[in-house]
Design a protein that fits this description.
The structure is a homodimer.
Chain A lengths: L13 H24 L6 H8 L3 H7 L3 H5 L1 H16 L6 H21 L4 H13 L1 H26 L8 H22 L5 H19 L16
The structure holds a DNA duplex.
Chain lengths: 227, 227
DNA sequence: AAGCTAATGTCAGTCACTGACAGTTGACAA
DNA sequence: TTGTCAACTGTCAGTGACTGACATTAGCTT
């Protein structure tokens, strides 16, 4: 056990390169098959066969058939979380979240394109929303992410998530807007990263003013409004 | 194919009675096993064996293992929808929803108890929230129900669901409150129907004022507030 | 080149779920 | 009562997702 690099993947060996290739191939083929034949009408064997690996190998890369469908989402989300953690503490929670998404969109484009065409990702997005099993998974993942973001926001503002409802409320509003923007992007024609960025910005700007008010002060009693 | 009664189940024959018994037994046993051993550690065979029917028969009563877990929820929800449809049109959307739940809680108690002990239903509720696969299903079901309610509300108020966001917003707020009440009930000690009714009422009364304002008037432009 | 080990393949097995077909049993009429 | 029909149920075989165990292959290291 010699020295290892801590950064994401790749110790630059041939091994890691092949692994990357296999994973990418599985992902691309899976999404392609899902979006053309439908998720339920695509078997894991089909995917594995197309990439010429065993089914067992597929499950070594992805814990489940479901997980492949969300692989790109996962990339985007973790990028967002990283950006959020990096925002300067002076920023209010809403500004931080807003800048984190926009920052994420700036850099994630190439990362996605390196793995799958953005257009394929958009088709995948549509498929997720129209496949009950995947929609369920999507909703669960969303609440998980919300909880994670709420925790980060609470940390930033030094609030207690258990007693102060404001982090969760703000995050819920924020992710709600994000979901609307995402859905609109999926329904639209423009598959570019530009368009999703623009949409996000537009929608978030509608929400901002309502949340800008007094933070870092004790919560009001229930029923009192801050807007 | 002779004359049939259109009402729920039971043509009072021995046949229907046996069917009811089998279904109830499967449901009760399933929930009991789920809540004691955990959902994933319970196989359909176990359930079927305990009731002394074949696995195939289980699947004739319930489309999936998942469906059993939500059988009681299903009862409550359809009861709520029925009550909502029966509310007089003079009531505003919020009042109608509120009265529908409270009305539903008044009558659903016995219906539940006739099938499973309320206490078992409460344990089931907790289990659903703590089992990822079931939580996902729960969220999806919730959004389905929300959509259904939004449609009813839009109808009542003669609004277009596609262009007017208010029905969905109101329903989202309403179901959000309901979810909080439900979760609290699940976490609490008191497994009675009384307590869920009281909780519901308490929480809804906090929300009411904010939604009481001018309905049946054209929607404002985005950004304008009504509170 | 030899040895270590990560990556992969193979195989057997579990579990959810389904279609097909056969046996059983209430319901209803003669 | 008895016979017939239709509804229930059981059995069986098969598919597909997923897992553990073990053998095999192929980079990496010295």
């Amino acid at each position: 056990m010699t020295e290892r690099q801590a950064t994401i993947g790749s110790t630059t060996g041939l091994r890691e390169l092949k692994k990357q290739r296999t994973r990418d191939a599985l992902l691309r083929v899976a999404l392609e098959l899902f979006t053309t034949q439908g998720y339920e009408h695509t078997t894991v064997d089909e995917i594995a066969d197309a990439v010429e690996v065993s089914q067992r190998t597929f499950f070594r890369y992805f814990a489940s058939k479901e997980e492949v469908a969300f692989a790109v989402q996962e990339m985007v989300e973790s990028r967002f979380v990283a950006e959020l953690l990096a925002r300067p503490p002076e920023e209010g929670p809403f500004a931080a979240m807003r800048n984190a998404v926009l920052g994420a969109w700036n850099t994630i484009g190439e990362a996605i394109e390196a793995v799958v065409p953005v257009e394929l990702h958009m088709r995948t997005y549509r498929m997720i929303e129209s496949t009950p099993a995947l929609l369920a998974a999507h909703l669960r993942r969303s609440t998980d992410l919300e909880e994670r973001i709420a925790g980060i926001v609470a940390d930033r503002e030094d609030l207690d998530l258990d007693t102060d409802p404001r982090p969760r409320v703000a995050v819920a509003a924020f992710t709600g807007v994000m979901r609307v923007a995402g859905r609109l992007w999926g329904q639209g024609e423009d598959a570019s990263m530009e368009s999703i960025r623009t949409l996000t910005e537009l929608y978030l700007d509608h929400l901002g003013p309502a949340l800008a008010a007094e933070w870092r002060t004790p919560a009001r009693t229930p029923g009192a409004h801050t807007g």
